[in-house]
Design brief:
- The chain is of the alpha/beta class and about 775 residues long.
- Strands 9, 10, 11, 12, 13, 14, 15 and 16 form an 8-stranded mixed beta sheet that branches.
- Helix 5 crosses helix 9 and helix 10 packs across helix 11 (about 210-220).
- It binds a DNA duplex (15 and 10 nucleotides) through helix 4, helix 10, helix 19, helix 26 and helix 27.
DNA sequence: GATTATATGGTTTTT
DNA sequence: CCATATAATC
């Protein structure tokens, strides 16, 4: 027994074995904190007989939660782990609120608004208050409100706060408090909570309802919190309340990796934790098991430039490893190509798999150049983040129907679906509906149900009545059918599916497939066995499903975790992950550090922590890159290299220069230097001859010149054909290159390449896996 | 009221 | 460059 303790170092064991009382673990990057957390939970259960039902663990993503559960189940060798309460703050609280909502005046089936929904409500409210949405930009208003909530400042507090009033008056938005109040009221009326409300309402529940507080205090005898440096004051206060009875609160964090202050997170929580509890045990995990000495060393150097930090020194027994590569390119496109070429080369030379590589960047918009380059080379990849599945329009549309059926108070969902697909209830009618609803202080749905009474006539009235009948029909099926069958019915009867099916454009086709995928996901939800639960509302109903998916992260939606693909993501999304070889791209002033975050020392230090997080994702190999110019707002913009690069000691770096200029001249430096003269800011970057070695230059030094193509307008019946059986001699149509004839077929069967002679554009090699070709004959 | 053309304006990061 | 908002037209 207790053999799960083997393989833990002294400090890790100390953290695991600490039984009762507050515990703070300061865990450096790659120091095995997940291992410590899982082992600690296992130990509580196995050695101290703590019931799984009495343990609450809060993680940063649902995926991390699922993995933790799985690992614990594996070590324990039984099914007890499924009774653990593990999840993100948001999902755990949503689950609790689903049971307790009526106490605070919400329906059990409350809707969860994502950012887009919330902004839309804010916009409506601004219009209703007769304010100008140019002066009050929904984006700004939303972030102000969100910031207030995360600091536990409610609408009334906000509107009455003298300082906030002054601040808003100065910033030319004196009515912000009123908007906040109206927004909060509207959400409440709609039976909806936004992301921040999940914390706020949980706090209010515990604060104002002693019976609820004591219920959950008794239940959660042991509380563990991962990524503690990224918690905000609202979360802090909730935990303080929940943990007050037993004080068995264990937090794990690393101040050096705090990167979510824009979401209200504050490192203060770490300092405050020590003050709030009398006798906090503190354990520091300082041995890094992930990275080479070189990588860890420059990480330490970089973070050393930040001022306030909790003292700790990361060390490792790992090998020294390679030097850090620093590559400069002329443009973002060449940066993409350099990365793709390097991946290809490294993969072959060291027998690495695609999934050993990650490309990290500061902003989602940067993914494009990497996508293009990887696709061109036939390297499979997967992008995390950006527009997630559940944010696609077609998905949100169908979900809005389901949301509305479950909660007809949700005016936001109603507005989305009432005229989609078009059924003749347009803007004018809806303005009237909104007007009547506000006058009588009832829901828009009630107005619709009594449309005749409110004076709607002929055409409009008929359309509205039909809509009401349809929705009522769906509602009556709500109790008779399961979520999947109902969703299928809604898709059919609302004509959404038909509408998408009839759209034969490529985008339409993709949308249709997305909807099918959504239906599949609902089916899967229904078919997965119930999580054992003690008398909670947690059931297989549509309401549960809707609440669950609104809290999914993009990382959670990852179906094939082990797929052999190169991973592309923002640094934020990479937190907690590790890869054999990491590319950190776009190390340029105004991009990283980002122009939005260089105005205060605090902001800049957070950018630096972000850089630190990026570096410490790498196990063996690290490549940093930057481009002299990149497309932004559709225009080529020049940038200096990032100030962070100057913080890395020269002897750890191997510089090189990839791109077209190098090729044209046959000599890397002359063109490079000429270019440098045109761009100030390169003075200190001494591109010494460090890469003048005789080694064969990688192929990224020779991008083929691309002749301008003659754009082709696809035929109206253009539709991608199945090209599996394509043969030489056949005539095809390509979306861009126009009509042509297959000259030869080559390449492996899983990645066939066709050489095609196009009438307008000459001979081109086309990868069939990616190109859209219509077979003409 | 719906469909299409033009204008605008916005990019940091995410539950 | 992109997506969404408004205007113009049927």
């Amino acid at each position: 027994m207790l053999n799960y303790l083997q393989g833990l170092n002294e400090m890790q064991q100390k953290a695991v074995l600490h039984k009762d009382g507050p515990l703070m673990i300061i865990a450096g990057a790659g120091s095995g904190k997940t291992k410590v957390l899982t082992t600690r939970i296992t130990h509580l259960m196995a050695a101290h007989n703590v019931d799984a039902f009495n343990i609450l663990a809060l993680t940063f993503t649902n995926k991390a939660a699922a993995e933790m559960k799985e690992r614990i189940a594996h070590i324990l060798g039984n099914t007890e782990a499924r009774n653990l309460y593990i999840g993100t703050f948001h999902s755990v609280f949503a689950r609790i609120l689903r049971t307790e909502a009526p106490k605070i005046g919400y329906p059990n089936n409350f809707t969860i608004y994502d950012t887009e929904d919330a902004k839309s409500v804010i916009k409506t409210v601004i219009n209703e208050l007769n304010l100008d949405d140019k002066q009050y930009k929904p984006n700004t208003v939303y972030s102000r409100i969100s910031a207030a909530k995360n600091a536990l400042v409610g609408p009334a507090d906000y509107a009455n706060d003298y300082h906030l009033q002054q601040e808003d008056a100065k910033a030319n938005r004196p009515m912000l408090g009123q908007i906040f109040v109206a927004y909060a009221n509207r959400c409440f009326k709609n039976g909806a909570m936004d992301f921040d409300d999940l914390l706020i309402k949980m706090y209010e529940l515990l604060k104002n309802y002693p019976d609820a507080l004591s219920k959950y205090q008794r239940k959660f005898k042991y509380i563990l919190i991962d990524e503690y440096q990224d918690t905000n004051p609202a979360q802090y206060e909730i935990i303080k309340l929940l943990g007050a009875m037993h004080e068995n609160v264990c937090v794990v964090g690393d101040d050096a990796q705090s990167i979510y202050s824009f979401r209200g997170a504050t490192i203060e929580n770490i300092l405050q934790f020590k003050k709030d509890y009398d006798d906090v045990a503190i354990v520091k995990l300082e041995q890094n098991y992930r990275s080479t000495k070189n990588i860890l060393h420059i990480a330490n150097q970089v973070i050393g430039n930040n001022k306030g930090q909790i003292e700790k020194v990361l060390f490792t027994d790992n090998a020294e490893g390679e030097k850090i590569k620093l590559v400069r390119t002329l443009t973002d496109n060449e940066e993409g190509k350099m990365v793709a070429d390097t991946i290809q080369e490294q993969r072959l030379r060291y027998h690495l798999a695609n999934k050993d590589f990650a490309i990290l960047y500061r902003t989602n918009a940067q993914s494009r150049s990497f996508e293009e380059a990887l696709r061109r080379m036939g390297i499979p990849y997967r992008i995390y983040g950006g527009i997630s599945f559940y944010q696609r329009k077609e998905i949100k549309d169908l979900l809005a129907y389901l949301r509305f059926i479950v909660n007809t108070n949700d005016d936001e969902a109603l507005k989305r679906i009432i005229n989609y697909p078009a059924r003749g209830i347009g803007k004018t009618s809806m303005e009237k509906v909104a007007l009547y609803a506000n006058e009588k202080n009832i829901h828009m749905w009630e107005v619709l149900c009594n449309a005749a009474m409110f004076g709607f006539k002929s055409g409009a009235l008929e359309s509205i009545d039909n809509f009401v009948i349809t929705i009522k029909m769906f509602q009556s099926e709500l109790t008779k059918q399961n979520a999947y069958d109902l969703a299928v019915l809604v898709g059919k009867h609302s004509n959404i599916v038909k509408e998408l099916f009839n759209d034969k454009t490529t985008e339409g086709l993709a949308r249709y497939e997305n909807v099918q995928e959504l239906l599949n996901s609902i089916k899967e939800f229904i078919e997965t066995p119930l999580n054992e639960e003690d008398g909670e509302v947690g059931d297989k109903g549509l309401g549960t499903y809707l609440q669950q998916i609104s809290l999914l992260t993009d990382a959670d939606a990852d179906s094939d975790e082990n797929a052999d693909t190169v991973k592309l993501m923002t640094i934020h999304a990479a937190k907690g992950l590790e890869f054999t070889m990491v590319f950190v791209a776009g190390l340029e002033e105004t991009l990283f550090p980002n122009a939005m975050s260089i105005n205060t020392r605090e902001e800049l230090e957070e950018e630096r922590r972000l850089f630190y997080v990026a570096i410490t994702r790498a196990k063996a190999k690290l490549v940093l890159s930057y481009a002299n110019a990149r497309y932004r707002f559709g225009q080529l913009q020049q940038n200096d290299s990032s100030r962070f690069l100057e913080e890395i000691p020269e002897e750890y770096i191997e510089r090189s220069y990839a791109g077209q200029a190098a090729r044209n001249n046959g000599n890397n430096w002359q063109q490079g230097t000429a270019f440098e003269r045109m761009n100030r800011g390169f003075g200190n970057n001494n591109f010494s001859a460090s890469n003048s070695s005789e080694k064969k230059k990688p192929s990224y030094l020779t991008p083929p010149p691309r002749p301008a193509i003659k754009e082709h307008v696809p035929s109206n019946n253009f539709e991608a054909s199945n090209t599996a059986l394509l043969q030489a001699g056949q005539r095809v149509e390509h979306q861009k290159f126009g009509f042509g004839q297959i000259v030869t077929m080559e390449g492996a069967s899983h990645n066939p390449i066709a050489t095609i002679h196009f009438e307008q554009n000459g001979e081109k090699k086309i990868m069939l896996n990616y190109a859209k070709l219509r077979i003409v004959e």
